[in-house]
Amino acid sequence: MKVEKISELTTNRLSVYLRCLEELASEGAKTVSSRRLAKRFHLNSAQIRKDLACFGEFGVRGVGYYVGDLRSNIQRILGLDKEHRVAIIGAGRLGAALADYYGFTQTNFDVVALFDSDKEKIGGEIGDIRIFDIADFAAVSEGKKIDVVVIAVPAPFAQGVLEIVSAAGIRAVMNFAPIPLKVAKEIKLKTVDLTISLESLSYFLAQPGTPNGKE
Amino acid sequence: MKVEKISELTTNRLSVYLRCLEELASEGAKTVSSRRLAKRFHLNSAQIRKDLACFGEFGVRGVGYYVGDLRSNIQRILGLDKEHRVAIIGAGRLGAALADYYGFTQTNFDVVALFDSDKEKIGGEIGDIRIFDIADFAAVSEGKKIDVVVIAVPAPFAQGVLEIVSAAGIRAVMNFAPIPLKVAKEIKLKTVDLTISLESLSYFLAQPGTPNGKE
DNA sequence: ATTCATTTGCGCCATTTTTCACAAAAACGA
DNA sequence: TCGTTTTTGTGAAAAATGGCGCAAATGAAT
């Protein structure tokens, strides 16, 4: 087991492994080998073993990994054994779509509040999630014990929102605004930039000779 | 100028450069150096020069890059000088949110059709975009000259949708279903997996000692 | 008990990506 | 014209990531 710093590529793959293990568990599988896991996606089995070895020796030689055991280990490593309380800033269509997005509702992420600056929206509800005034973020955040924030506001407002939430002590932020944000390094910012993804598709159409990158 | 194969990391950065150049152009800047561009994000200036050098010699030594010139070159490289016609499969909340997402409306991507399998929704409209029956995809796709498809359906249906659209000759697909899809290599598939991003935030909260990966 | 078939963990090498460092080119002032 | 400053383009070094191959551990079969 290595104690060096873990690459984000590794933790991203852990998420993928976890989903696969949940599927295997529901199929009733007791053990699984790295080779079989590797075939599910298009990965190398050594990669999987190396990723897992970063955190301990979970496997048994000659056998493979115990599905339930590995699953709960990865859950613990990823911090998914604890509930996360999510606030979404921006109660527009994107915010509304995210509020009942499968990924939030089916997992340990619980969307407990929406925020907006539009007086028309404040006080309303989407699904059964209340919309608060962004000006009250710090107080509501503390009361509702929010630990993850999703920014779903137009690009020009994103930096301001980020400053409000980081001032309130939030340390994990997912940003959908297609703009590079400046952030203190104690805060983990993950930007999902759909524009980049789209333009990458456009590049592929324009330059069909280029070999397909691995996803 | 190198003619080797271009990494996806490079093309992703081109998107970022392009946005920055558009901002600079609207500020009236005539030229920009790689060093100044690098400061805008947290990048190394050599990286920027090398990315650009993949496609030609756009800069002038001692001066930098001409903003307007570089901008139109990157647009052309990314295929953004031509309009793209997008179909969104899945007229749920996510599909609806994407239909009027800034990235689509403000750029050369035009959402021209939605598809669903729910008879209740088919025939309706979101914004002013018509919802068609997914069973008619091939015909509608040809008529409307669709070249990019966005999959916004629940995970269990995603593989089936992918097969329908690829059979209809679509070559660029963006997928929001959190599931690994199998696809022929002539097709460019870009999966945006929000679950992975969320879980990566959770990992950061659980393991605060880990240094912050660069976004 | 011994052999055989598996499969992990890991050292080591290959490939990819990033960064450094500097010669060559351009602009400008004296 | 010539030196000074700036900034590109790129070869080479460094860092990060991925993949190979094998010793060691395990379980099953004989």
Describe the structure.
The structure is a homodimer of 215-residue chains. With 215 residues, chain A is an alpha/beta fold. Chain A is 42% helix and 19% strand. The first copy, chain A, has helices at 8-27, 34-40, 45-53, 67-77, 93-99, 102-105, 137-143, 155-167, 194-206, and strands spanning 31-32, 59-60, 64-66, 84-89, 109-116, 125-126, 129-133, 148-151, 172-175, 188-191. In chain A, strands 6-7-5-4-8-9-10 form a seven-stranded mixed sheet, sandwiched between helices. In chain A, strands 1-3-2 form a three-stranded antiparallel sheet. In chain A, strand 6 (125-126) and strand 7 (129-133) form a beta hairpin. The longest helix of chain A has 20 residues, at 8-27. The two termini of chain A are 29 Å apart. The interface between A and B is large, with 75 and 73 residues. Chain A binds a DNA duplex (30 and 30 nucleotides) through residues 1-2, 7, 9, 33-35, 44-47, 49-50, 52-53, 57-65.
Structure described in brief:
The structure is a homodimer of 215-residue chains. With 215 residues, chain A is α/β, with parallel strands linked by helices.
